[in-house]
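Input chain follows. Return structure tokens only.
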Amino acid sequence: IGTGPYRFVEHKPDRHIKLARFKDYAARSEAPDGWGGKRTAYADEILFMPVPDVSVRLAGVETGEYHFAQNIKQDQYERIKAIPALDANIIKPYGWITAVPNHKQGVMASKKIRQAFLAALDMEPIMAAGVGNKDFYRLDGALFYPEQGLMHSQSGVTGYNQKSKDRARALLKEAGYKGEPVRWITTKEYDWMYTTALVARQQMEEAGFKVDLQVLDWATLVQRRNKPELFDVFSTGFTFNPDPALATSLQCNWPGWWCHEEKDRLMAELARETDPKRRRALIDRVQAIFYEEVGRVKLGDFFSLDVVRKELRGFASTPELYFWNAWLAK
């Protein structure tokens, strides 16, 4: 399947996905450059093995059973750095943690109530609760990351991290809010979703909201977020996307249904535009609308921790995994 240096061999549920070198692959001639350039398949085969328990994943890399593991708990960072056989890699950028309001119906369909929600939040304790180690989160209101250069905009970010309960109360009064419960669905399967929601709920209630925090398994949350009558806010994260025109966080037809005529027109222009400076001007305007309308509530950037055995050479830890140009040292 596909045209890359490795081909799909088999999928054994709960055991592995196996890839093998694709003998008919023809590599490009220029030097490797990120996801571009020459790709060499040094390994005979690659096994992707599901290991749900984080501690088992880490132990497997420590013993050499695995060469690489994703999404290790950030509180293990200092310990891993002290192990000579391992490299601890911070994946930065990785994504941002968000609370997604329901624009279609319910209490969050009111713009002023969404604005009150955003105004009430103090992002530092929220992100500290969700992530912990300061090496793994950043308070930044921009939709795109500093690492993305010209795409990183400061337009509208005064709306981020307002931590103003007085403004939130005033907006709730203007909106005619009468204590209707905000049904926030979250999950403990991603610990940072639950802990960020827990702290945000406390801050919202201090500003005058009533919050019904509902803890579900992830599969149920994904089902329920597709039905606008069943929630007002849900927890999730938006992972790194190299092109802003494809950002899920800005799409009209994604759960939360943030549809806005000007924003949607600008996104269509962004998909067609190739000039970087013109694209930046479009991003500036989209981001200003994002904060005025409170399209989503960005809590902060978060980074992932991957662990690699040092004999795995030529491998680059990035948000999107690839193992071409990587080999095992003897």
